[in-house]
Design a protein that fits this description.
This protein has helices at 28-36, 50-62, 95-109, and strands at residues 2-3, 26-27, 41-47, 67-72, 85-91. With 117 residues, it is of the alpha+beta class. It folds into 2 domains: 1-37, no CATH class; 40-111, UreE, C-terminal domain (Alpha-Beta Plaits, 2-Layer Sandwich). Strands 3-5-4 form a 3-stranded antiparallel β-sheet, with helices on both faces. A two-stranded antiparallel sheet has the order 1-2. It binds zinc ion. Zinc ion binds at residues 4, 6-7, 9, 18, 20-21, 23.
């Protein structure tokens, strides 16, 4: 599936230019490969839930932190139940702040169960 290297939107196979950015689309695989070794990025979070990755990215974006979602689906090893690992990458300089934000979010979305006494 082609993906826009600018806005990271995925498109149908017959689309070659991102309608939003006017940028030529690249293959998702190439895009991901290019991202797996970015020197100034590091993995701040891994999840198997795409919605969670999107949610965290949106929160980081809101905090002014640029985050990349890198799905690591291994097509040579199709996992039962479509298991996939999605890495969330941020710039090294943003790593601590991003970690703090993600921890905050996770502690809010998964509050300790404290029912009324
Ligand atoms: Zn785009």
């Amino acid at each position: 599936m082609p993906i826009c290297p600018n806005c990271e939107s995925e498109y149908m196979d017959n689309i070659t230019i991102c309608p939003d950015c006017g940028v030529e689309l690249v293959k998702n695989d190439e895009f991901t490969e290019n991202l797996t070794t970015p020197e100034d990025y590091q993995i701040v979070y891994s999840t198997s839930e795409e919605y969670e990755a999107e949610m965290l990215k949106a929160n980081l974006d809101g905090a002014g932190i640029e985050a990349l979602i890198v799905p690591k689906k291994d097509r040579n090893f199709p996992a039962v139940g479509d298991l996939a690992v999605i890495d969330l990458l941020v710039k090294k300089e943003d790593f601590e702040e991003a970690t703090r934000i993600i921890n905050d979010i996770n502690s809010n979305t998964n509050p300790p169960i404290e029912e009324n006494p």
